[in-house]
Design a protein that fits this description.
Blueprint: E1 6-11, H1 15-26, E2 31-35, H2 41-46, H3 48-67, H4 81-105, E3 109-112, E4 115-119, E5 122-125, E6 128-137, E7 141-143, E8 155-156, H5 157-160, E9 169-173, H6 177-188, E10 192-196, H7 208-220, E11 224-226, E12 231-236, E13 242-246, E14 251-254, E15 256-259, E16 263-265, E17 298-300, H8 311-326, E18 340-342, E19 348-352, H9 355-361, E20 365-372, H10 377-380, E21 386-393, E22 399-405, H11 409-421, H12 426-431
Parallel strand pairs: 1-2, 1-6, 2-3, 6-17, 8-15, 9-10, 9-15, 10-11
Antiparallel strand pairs: 4-5, 5-6, 7-16, 12-13, 13-14, 18-19, 19-22, 20-21, 21-22
């Protein structure tokens, strides 16, 4: 029997921390957790869930407009921001309770408050101290802002979910998925929106065909896109509006400036200086395949390790960790072909290699691509385009990349991601009978390579 109070102490109860704690407890470990902010972490409170709810809300603008082509002739209703906020908060509160119940049901002891590491086996939470055999750090990440004059007037995605009033104008900084998603959210809710990115084109790392199509689709929605554009300073005017000055001298006036320029590992004030935990320059905790740090009994997983910042990745890492440490069944996570989605409008979903990556890895590839106006929009009046793309290793016929821009892209690509993990070939996709009429059938009817 261990002389420690617990076998495992988990710092942070986001998706990864809760899963690791719950599964470890079910395997027989005595587990405790600590959290100073909110149950469920970023995803539940200021990330995936409220963001997707906001995306749903913003898309009704298009739905009402497009319904006229189908005979629905009533006027577009007014939008009430406070109703959306209240209902969003209610749903998050419900999810907070579910996460709390999962820990209680598994017999996990939870501490409300900030946990600090005093040494390799001792944790303090408030005025309490406990000992533990193993420590798991699952504190996630935190949004960053530029260090420029007036940065205190800039908000991040954390605050964007709690604005008391919907702004009339918004400037969004960044070129990643959070920036692109919020541009669509604000524009869909009737906000005059500009997205400014320091690079030549947003969504770096995605397939170039995807990036270019999304650019044109956002421009159709009257989102102003400013590339090679870096904000230099912000000042608040007497009216309360914000004046932003860019490095090239351009000046704009707006009501909200949202920085979606990156996230950093949340490692401040954890007490890491008291133990031998190696970190990268940005604070990310360095771990091996078993999520073990350079301090043998301390582990870390999820966004705090700054590898693949996705909720399902953290959950799968937690499953591997718990199985390895407490079930006697070592598991190593496979990070290949992880599917992901961007909930811009239209949606993006992707799995596997981009065309550029595939060309660098294989001597010869085949590319299949289809761009079209979806059936729905033949009557809706919308000029929105969809894109589907398959990338194949020519030598083996194995599919190595699948990409989509279009409605419900994530729902479609999820199933294709399973096929890719199973080693699907283009020949097998060609033999698959499509479901007609759907957009998804295009993936099994593309026959001619570019």
């Amino acid at each position: 029997m261990s002389t420690y109070d617990y076998d495992l102490f988990v710092i942070g109860v986001g998706s990864g921390g809760v899963r690791a704690a719950r599964m470890s407890a079910q395997y027989g470990a005595r587990v405790a957790t600590a959290e100073e902010k909110y149950m469920g972490g970023t995803c539940v409170n200021v990330g995936c869930i409220p963001k997707k709810l906001f995306v749903y809300a913003s898309h009704y603008h298009d739905d009402f407009s497009e319904a006229k082509g189908y005979g629905w002739l009533s006027h577009q209703p007014d939008f009430d921001w406070t109703t959306l906020l209240a209902n969003k908060d209610k749903e998050i509160l419900r999810l907070n309770g579910i996460y709390e119940g999962l820990l209680e049901g598994a017999g996990v002891t939870h501490f409300d408050g900030r946990a600090r590491i005093l040494d390799a086996h001792t944790i303090s939470v408030g005025d309490k101290q406990v000992t533990t055999d193993k420590i798991l750090i699952a504190t996630g990440g935190w949004p960053t802002k530029q260090s420029i004059p007036g940065a205190e007037h800039i908000i991040t995605s954390n605050e964007a979910f709690y604005l008391e009033t919907l702004p009339k104008r918004a400037l969004i900084l960044g070129g990643g998925y959070i920036a692109v998603e919020f541009a669509g959210i604000y524009a869909g809710l009737g906000v005059q929106t500009e997205l400014a990115y320091r690079g030549p084109l947003f969504l770096r790392g995605f397939d170039d065909d995807v990036r270019h199509l999304v650019q044109s689709e956002l421009e159709k929605k009257e989102i102003a896109l400013s590339f090679e554009s870096t904000l230099a300073a912000v000042e608040q005017m007497p009216s309360g509006a914000l004046r932003g000055t860019f490095e090239d001298g351009r000046v704009i006036e707006t009501d909200v400036i949202l920085a979606a320029t990156g996230r950093k590992p949340a490692v401040a004030d954890l007490g890491l200086e008291t133990v031998n935990v190696a970190q990268r320059e940005n604070g990310a905790i360095i771990v091996d395949d078993q999520y073990q740090t350079s301090e043998p009994n301390i582990f870390a997983l999820g966004d705090v390790t700054d590898r693949i910042q996705l909720t399902p990745v953290a959950i799968q890492e937690a499953m591997c960790f718990a199985s390895t440490q407490f079930a006697g069944k070592p598991q190593v996570m496979d990070y290949n072909d992880i599917a992901t989605a961007v909930f811009c409008q239209p949606n993006i979903a992707t799995v596997g290699l981009t065309e550029a990556e595939a060309r660098s890895q294989y001597p010869a590839i085949r590319v299949y691509r289809s761009q079209f106006r979806p059936l729905k929009h033949t009557l809706s009046g919308s000029e929105e385009q969809s894109l589907m793309k398959i990338i194949v290793d020519d030598a083996t016929d194995r599919v190595v990349g699948i990409h989509m821009v279009g409605a419900e892209a994530g729902e479609i690509i999820q199933g294709l991601a399973v096929a890719m993990k199973a080693g699907v070939t283009k020949a097998i996709m060609d033999q698959t009978v499509g479901i007609h009429p759907t957009a998804a059938e295009e993936f099994v009817t593309m026959r001619t390579a570019l």
